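re the bet — no i am not wrong, look at it urself. input seq straight from the record:
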Amino acid sequence: MYAGRLIAALAAAFCLYGQQPEHGRRYARLIIRNAMVLEGNGTPASGPRDIVVENNVIRSVGGPAGRGGVEIDAKGKYVLPGFINMHGHSHDERGGVAMPVEYVFKLWLASGITTVRDVGSNFERTKAMREASREGRVAAPRLFLYPFFGRPADPDASRARVRQLKQMGADGIKIVGIHRDTMNAMMEEARALQLPVAHHVGVEETNAWDNIANRTATIEHWYGIPDAALRDGVQNFPPDYNYADEVHRFRYAGRLWREADPALLEKVLAGMVKAGVAWDPTFNIYEASRDLQRAETKPEFREYLHPALEKFFQPSRENHGSYFFDWSTADEVYWKENYRIWMKAVRDFARMGGTVTTGEDAGYIYQMYGFGFLRELELHQEAGFHPLQVVQHATVNGAKMLGQERTLGRVRAGWTADLLIVNGNPLENLKLLSPLRRGIEWTIKDGYVYHAPKLLAEVKEIAKQARSGKGRTTE
């Protein structure tokens, strides 16, 4: 009997050794062999190296890996840290049409995103998903929740709202359209309660100088930065300008950077660096403004676009970001210039020592979840950053701004096992990361191993079933 048990155990161990892992499982011991390793901190790749993961922690990178456990042969492949999406939305509907949140989560994982800073979704539902992801009960990235702050009427109400969000379990706060007195009050309370703040500034009373004074964690997109560098303090809007009309809003946003004074802008950027305010530019989310035809004809739409998202993207006054029913060649020309100046400003900010991160803001303006994030990486390269710096923006820098620089964002012993195994060298061509190229083979999040092609097949089926009217609408 003992001999039989021993033979069975040896047989089980032999079957496990050398076998690829099963999708969605965490293993006590996982060895990734022969990998070219990109740590994520801006240093070049090195290898081949073996990486040992035990449960959800990287135990060693390089050196003898020994035997035992499940193995992945990464010969000819690159291993990167999991990507950190600093501007995500865990949507479960678009324009009132239901869409399963698993569609969003699986697209993120298939695109190599293992951590998402959610800056505004259904808070209670997403909070439950945060816990389910943490416990491995759902295939989803790690979630940090920064719910919308709203617009409290006065400073006292602002302080009360901060306390409420802390009690509700928020990891941080997202502010949009806020007055100076309420912002100052809420920032004072947020610092006391150690809640970091992300600011979508907009055309409003506050601008980047208020972010500098209050030391917010990040400025989202770019609003408020060129505004703070206007010579006359206000953009040259036409008399009939209506900020509530999104055609007006985005049309003239495309002309803002050209009005910023370069000398004043340099002072604004230097002030952000000194105050530790990071910049999350989300280049991808406005790209349709400079090239609408490209946005409307993306190849990923063919098989992976959910009909709720497709309907939301159609030009309409009803849905946020669907302002293209009156878009012109002149608008695209202005936006192309806007991008040139904006990208130079981000590059200058980084050269001064500023922290740049990556986020997508997908679910709006023709951007799909995951695909938008990977396009963001390409646009950082267009802005003038070396691919090593782009990877750093998407990993180490995001971890830093989440206060997780000792646990996330690196392929390093002692760090959490968030890893991507990529077929080929993404430094040579960032397009390899696209789900359409099937470059990402495995996404490992917190030690859980996900096969990216399987995730994509599941997303494709969700979209197909939804188009046929048979799809599930909830998680």
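see?? The chain has two domains: 2-81+413-468, 84-401. told u. also The domain at 84-401 is CATH 3.20.20.140 (TIM Barrel). so pay up
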